[in-house]
Amino acid sequence: MTKNTARNLFFIGTMSCLVIFFVLSIHTMSTIPKHTNSGKLTDDVIAGKKVWEKYDCIGCHTLIGEGSYFAPELKDIYSQKGPAFIRAFLKDPVKVWYGSAEAAKGQRKMPNLHLSDEEINHLTAFFEWVDKIDTHNWPPRPQRAAVQGTETWHPVSAQEAREMERGEAIVKEKGCIACHKIKGVGATVGPDLTGVARRLDMETLHKRLRDPKSVNPSSIMPVYGFSDEQSEAIIAFLKTL
After folding, report:
1. Which value, to the nearest 10 degrees, does the dihedral of the CA atoms of residues 198, 199, 202, 203 take?
2. What is the DSSP letter of 138?
3. DSSP letter, residue 57
4. Which residues have a Cβ under 8 Å from the Cβ of 70 and sit 6 or more positions away?
5. Residue 54 — pLDDT band, cuts 50, 70, 90?
6. Which of 14, 95, 165, 231 is 20 to 30 Å apart from 45, CA to CA?
C-alpha cells in the first residue's frame, strides 16, 4: 500500500466516522423531547417539582431509580393509583393506607406533611408528568417467571396464570420492592422474596401476609389487610420466583 493510498483511506475513514457521529447526534437530540416529555413541562409541573424538593420526598422515595429505598418508587404512581387516590393519600396518608391512626400503630408510615390543596394539585401534576417520561423500562420491575419445580417443569393452566398475574399486580401495587428484593431488584429492608415459597411452608406465608408480627414479633411490615383470595394470588406469584 502506497503512502497516498494510506492517507486517502485515513481521510475517508475519518470523514465517514465524523458524518456518522453527527447524524447519530442529531437523531438523538431530535428524540430527546419525545422521551423526556419536556414539551409538556407546565407551570404546575414545575411547581410540583418544587414541592417535591421542599419536603425532601427523595429522602424516603425513589423517583426513576434515584433516591432512598425506604418507601416505594414513584415513577409510575400516577398510572398505578390515579389522581384521586394520590390527592386523598397526600391529604392524610395514615387514614387512606391504614384506615385509622390506631391501626397504624407500630407500622411504618408516611407522616402527614399537612400539604395545602394547591401543593397537592401541583405534586399530582408533577407525578402525572413523570409518569409519561419514557425511561425505557427503568427502573427495572420484577418479571414473572415460568413455574418450575425442583426437578422438572410442569405446565401452568390458564387459571393459574391469571392468579400469578393478579398476585404480581398486587405486589407491584403495594410497592413490595421498596423493602424486599425480587430477582435482584429492590431494597434489603425485608427478606429477599426470591425463592421464599421454597423456604417457607404455605401456612407461614399466609400468616406473614395476614399478620407479619404473628410470625416475627419484630417485623416492621405493615398489615395490608389482604383477603384470602389476595393472599392466594400473591403466593401463586411468589412460587414463580
Report:
1. 170
2. -
3. G
4. 59, 60, 61, 178, 187, 189
5. very high
6. 95
Instruction: Determine contact, residues 34/133, Cβ cutoff 8 Å.
Output: no
Asked if the model's pLDDT at residue 153 lies above 70, the reply is no
Grid cell 422515595 is found at 61
One-letter amino acid at 209 equals L
- Indicate the pLDDT class of residue 152, thresholds 50, 70 and 90: very low
Q: What is the mean pLDDT of the chain?
A: 85
Residue where the block lists cell 411468589: 238
C-alpha atoms less than 13 angstroms from C-alpha of 40 in its C-beta half-sphere: 13
Percent of the chain at pLDDT > 90 equals 31
Q: Which residues of 32-49 are buried (b: 16+ CB within 10 A; e: fewer)?
A: eeeeebeeeeeebbebbb
Q: Given 3.40.50.620, 3.40.50.720, 1.10.760.10, 3.40.1360.10, which CATH number is that of 158-238?
A: 1.10.760.10
Write the pLDDT tens digit of every residue in 178-234.
Answer: 888 887 788 888 888 888 888 888 888 999 898 888 888 888 888 888 998 999 999
- The conformational region for residue 196 under phi > 0 = left, psi -120 to 50 = alpha, else beta, is alpha
Question: Please, where are the H alpha helices in 92-152?
Answer: 93-98, 117-131
